[in-house]
Structures are given as structure tokens and as C-alpha cells.
Design brief:
The chain is an all-alpha fold and 125 residues long. It is built from 5 helices and no strands. It is 78% helix and 0% strand. The protein is flat.
């Protein structure tokens, strides 16, 4: 969902940073999908999928970096004003979702002692 929102808002606002972040998130998600398949696959296929995930993510990041460099050069020659509230609003929305997920996945770090996990949670002395 983040990819769709960032892409739509990025094109609507003409924000290269939102579009590039959406592409970065998409490449990460596709690499994670390949890694998930690698985990579920046989050993030989798993090795090939791991290599494909690494290659996909590396090539994707290099291609996006080159695109950012080219677009930045174009923007430096002919800068265009951006509606600043669109990237800011989308960024705040993404920050809120990220903080919510961090709270879920790292609850023990945020609230020590409140959440017990592992073998110690089942054996009290």
C-alpha cells in the first residue's frame, strides 16, 4: 500500500523523492518475495533464488541511483516548484506506519519487562 500511495502522490506532486522511495520499497518487497520462495524451496533452487534476490536488489538500487542522478541534473537546469504539503503529508503517514510497526516488532525494547518471550516466559522460579 505504501508503494501505491507514494507513487500516486509522487507523480501528482511531481516529487522525484517520493517516486524513487516507492521504487526502492517495491524492489525491497520483490527481493523479500524471492527470499521467501527461497526459504520454502529445495536446497538447489533455494541457492538460485537467493542469488536472484541479491542480484535483483543490487541492480534495482543501481538503476534507481542512476535515474536519480539524471533527474537531479535535469532539475538543476530547470527547477520546478513543488506543492510542499504533499510530500510532507505522505512522509508523515509513512512515519506513523513505521513507528506503529516498530512498536509491534520491538515491544520488548520499548517496554522492558512487560512482554515475556521464549523459554523463560514459561518457567518461573
Amino acid at each position: 500500500m505504501i508503494v501505491l500511495v507514494e507513487t500516486g502522490a509522487g507523480f501528482w506532486a511531481g516529487s522525484l523523492s517520493l517516486v524513487m522511495d516507492a521504487l526502492h520499497n517495491l524492489s525491497d518487497e520483490l527481493a523479500l518475495l524471492l527470499l521467501w520462495f527461497a526459504y520454502a524451496a529445495s536446497r538447489d533452487l533455494s541457492q538460485n533464488l537467493l542469488r536472484a534476490a541479491n542480484l535483483f536488489n543490487t541492480v534495482g538500487l543501481i538503476a534507481m541511483s542512476l535515474l536519480v542522478i539524471v533527474q537531479a541534473a535535469i532539475e538543476l537546469r530547470d527547477p520546478q516548484p513543488l506543492p510542499g504539503w504533499v510530500p510532507a503529508l505522505v512522509g508523515l503517514w509513512i512515519l506513523g506506519g513505521t513507528l506503529r510497526e516498530l512498536g509491534r516488532s520491538h515491544a520488548e525494547l520499548l517496554w522492558p519487562g512487560r512482554i515475556e518471550c521464549g523459554p523463560a516466559a514459561h518457567h518461573r522460579d
